[in-house]
Write a structure and sequence with these properties.
Shape: globular
Helix content: 25-40%
Largest sheet: 8 strands, mixed
Radius of gyration: 17 Å
Number of helices: 7
Order of helices and strands: EEHEHEHEEHHEHEEEH
Number of strands: 10
Strand order of the largest sheet: 5-4-3-6-7-9-8-10
Oligomer: single chain
């Protein structure tokens, strides 16, 4: 791989399990475990004429980590120009420009690039925190937008995801458990039927701090499955075998 131009403060990190390299900057955005878990939880059609869209794409981590699952196209939608630029350069770094496209702008206006009812899979690792007047926000605007609903909100994200999907298309979200009920209510209001819900616990005996949700557009109600939860670290503070394999491969 040819090394792309790196901007000040940037570095190249690697997801060893997939041999994917990604341009990161702790000052702007660096992917975390939720991106890896979401990319693994999502199931993409293999076929070459499929279309997947990752909303709130950040530096492109989720789309890059899903790229090995499909021969189809993956579109990434990101509102922050600096992050969209990082995503484009990471796509080039991994020689995935034929498969992946970055659309820079507001996800609420995604239909200027992608028609309604045209997409097989939508994924989203959204800002987790509501933009409340008294909420503490990171003074770094890049990080504040990534973590708080400043430029979008969950209602807009779910509506947009549903609008993009074909009938029986699938949506995948990662979020905080304390907002699961809100997410499910918004899904119900937007023709998305939840089908799989998986909790993520940081370590044994600790409350879940993430939840992964799969939904089908216009799917039949009911039939929700709850796979065994993921535990990130074992009692000794080491990654559990499942999470270790996602990060480093089966070593």
């Amino acid at each position: 791989m040819s090394t792309p131009e790196l901007r000040a403060g940037e570095r190249i990190d690697q997801l060893y399990s997939q041999d994917i390299q990604i341009i990161q900057s702790p000052e702007v955005f660096a992917f975390s475990l939720d991106a890896v878990l979401l990319a693994d939880f999502a199931k993409l059609p293999v076929r070459a004429d499929s279309q997947t869209v990752d909303l709130c794409a950040g530096n492109g981590a989720v789309g890059l980590f899903m790229s090995h699952q499909t021969r189809g196209q993956i579109a990434e939608v990101e509102i922050q120009p600096r992050l969209a630029d990082m995503a484009r350069r990471s796509i080039a770094l991994n020689r995935l420009a034929q498969q992946m496209t970055v659309y820079e702008g507001d996800l609420a206006e995604v239909n200027q690039w992608l028609p309604k009812d045209s997409v097989d899979v939508v994924t989203c690792n959204p800002p987790y925190f509501e933009n409340l007047p008294d909420s503490q926000k990171n003074p770094n605007q890049y990080l504040a937008i990534a973590r708080h609903e400043i430029t979008t909100d969950l209602a807009t994200i779910v509506k947009t995801a549903s609008g993009l999907l074909k009938m029986n298309g699938k949506a995948y979200f990662v979020h905080r458990p304390d907002r699961l009920l809100q997410l499910l209510q918004l899904m119900s209001a937007n023709r998305l039927a939840p089908k799989r819900i998986r909790l993520v616990h940081p370590k044994p005996g600790k409350e879940a701090n993430m939840v992964l949700v799969e939904a089908i557009k216009d799917g039949n109600p009911g039939g929700v499955r709850f796979p065994a939860p993921i535990t990130v670290y074992d009692a000794r503070g080491q990654y559990t075998p499942e999470v270790g394999a996602l990060l480093y491969g089966n070593q």
